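Let us begin with a simple case.
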Amino acid sequence: METIERPDVNTREAVGGGSRFLFPILCGAAIFYAVMQTVIVPLLPVLPGLTDSSQLAVSWMVTITLLVGAVITPIFGRLADMYGKKRILLTAFVVMTVGSLLCAVSSDIAVLIAARALQGAGAAVIPIGVSMLRDELPPHKLNGAIAMMSSTLGFGTALGLPFSAAIAQYANWHMLFIVTTLIGVVLIVATVVYVRESPAGSSGRFDGVGSVGLAAALVCLLVPVTQGGTWGWSSPAILSLFATAVVLFALWGFHQWRNDNPLVDLRVSMRRAVLIPNVVALLVGFAFFGNTLITTQLLQTPSADGGAGYDLTILQAALCQIPPSIAMIVFAQVGVRITERFGSKVTMMCGATVLTVGYIVHAISGKSLWAVIATLGVTAIGTALVYSTLSILIVRAVPAGMMAAANGVNVLLRTVGSTVCSAVVATILASHLVAGSHFSTSSGFTLAYLVCAVLAVIVFVACLALPGKAPREVHP
């Protein structure tokens, strides 16, 4: 595959002033997408009444966003490498904003599900953004910028919960999407005015067959993962979809391996320097989402009648997520300093260790509220150390013409990990309900946390296979 050479370091230094707005715009976009993902969660209990629909129908407002995000991320990443990163980034912003606008003006459940599907396009923001940062920033600024962008995704995830809960408690729920529509318009205008098109790219034809094949395989995988608890894990529909996913992934992999212009270059993806970060992304995607998902439910669970929780309101529980999110931003930069001094491998192993400790403490029942919030912070710090390093590893390991697509696969795997986490946690908590209630026992929460701890240990083991200390800076 032919590649178009990116500018050298001196050229990027000389033109750096033209991209001074790129970083804040991309960070704002990451927060925007993360808010989009979580903004609907506090509304789930009341949306059936507000939309005159069933709980199952409303649950698709979460599922469809994750599903479309997983499908579209590698596709938009490849399109960005081929046709221009600014162009595809703007496309993602416009699609997300249209989705927000539809949610702001409609209460029809079919329209809302379609609108939430459009909002899933925002998942492409992170891989395209990381690729643009590599094209535009000088090497000495790159690692810190990538780490900060990755951590703002976590901050936006936590910000969306109290934002949504406050609106739901004190205002009309449509106001949520009026605000996000306005944010989307601001991002579109800022990108058009202040961001220039990246000079890097790749030639070749777009792999339409590979795109359709990957989309079909992901749908057949993620629909049963998200709906297994509702349809029944042993139901014919669930088992058939899983079996179809296995066949489609096998056929898709064969097609990608033989294609001269693949959607995902499997030969590059199988390199140790790319494969290990992708495996870690899948596992940490699960662990990161577990920290938010399990703890938010624990904080809202009653403390009486066998409950293990703390009787917090939706808004109070959401506010507990903000301090850990701030810690993520701070420790993402700490992770960069560790990487520059000792190498990415050490940073990843430190992050996995902190994650493991956090989840083991999480699993201890009967802690005071401040201890729960502190443990949230510890686990968030471990996540930040790992997340701050993943994109840096991908940037170092793949050619410039594949940058957005490669980061798209990494983000895709994080999304799959989070989706699987949602299903696993729901199944565990549902199987440990207090008799005659809808909330879980302390043993249910403990088991859910321990599953995340085991995955953190696997992340540590996987990191042992990473290469040793890498160069301090990324070179063209």
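The second case is a distinct protein. As before, the sequence precedes its structure tokens.
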Amino acid sequence: MSTPTAAPPALRPEDFLNIDRMLSDEERDIRDTVRAYVRDKITPNVGDWFEEGQVPAAELAKELGSLNVLGMHLEGYGCAGASATAYGLACMELEAGDSGIRSLVSVQGSLAMFAIWKWGSEEQKQEWLPRMAAGDAIGCFGLTEPDAGSDPGSMRTRARRDGDDWIVSGQKMWITNGSVSEVAVVWAQSDEGVLGFVVPKGTKGFTTQDIHKKLSLRASITSELLLDEVRLPDSARLPLVSSLKGPLSCLNEARYGIVWGATGAARACFEAALSYSKERTQFDKPIASYQIQQQKLAFMATEVNRGTLVALQLGRLKDEGAIRPEHVSMGKLGNVNGALEVCRNARQVLGANGITLEYPVIRHMNNLESVVTYEGTADVHALSIGQALTGISAFR
């Protein structure tokens, strides 16, 4: 057995385990491009967007389209056809900026675009995907309802045949991008199973209204979708699926992005706390010199590196076609909960400054309180993992 002769590389706080060397040159290039965009465009403005409860979604969609990150993991139709790992790295950098910005990209690419790409007709793909990939058209995904969240099978939105058309009625809730979308993918119960429909903005009977007074994801548009006897031609139906397999497959795509994104939010908070601890002086020395603060920093660094390694492993599995929904559940459960703990530790390191929008910590902490719930709550993901471990379903 040979003995390594080269000295190990110097430790870097920003990449303690030297994960960077596990990435390809192309993956690093994509990550660095998105990181630079977030640094130049998102970070200087997102505190104001969060405080004001608004975001220039149309402008950002065009810019993100120019970066080729909208539906970047899809093939054809103007999409970049990047690897799952590259897409995850982009999500990590976007959420290091803000969860709302990563949500815009996730909903566009992994929910609305993926639904059309996976389950749509060729005509639907040609009509919508190139425009959505370019950011010329924003999309949303209508599954969650006021009384149907973790149990989408209990949705009340209904679709019924009327001659050659469909009549769709119902209400969708907590829909990212809702009011700024040119198209909504809406799921409904029918006598033929759970069906998806492509509903363009302006369709008679289809309206939206924004949800206000949020204290989380404020740099993101969240809406209700209202469908009042909306008449759609059969060509608006996604023809390749008629069960919950359709929307659940889309959700798994979005959850995968969250596994990466949560780690980006955690990293941003850790970096803010580390920098602050070296600059903040109390009792004549930096607070970084105190054991109790070093313990917090050590925990945060460990969690950020752990989460990144989990995300990278899932990315490699996904690129090999070997990933399972339970893998994604474990990634989301562990990485989002871990990121929340990083944020809370960082908040304590920053003291009173930790609650201001001059620093990213309280914003990320508030955002992650939504991320831990959407695309499957922590409890539901725990039950998914438990079922995989025991072979026993605890859902019913």
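The chain has three domains: 14-134, 139-236, 245-390. The beta strands are 139-142, 158-162, 165-176, 183-190, 193-200, 206-210, 222-233, 281-282, 285-286.
Keep these points in mind for the review questions at the end of the chapter.
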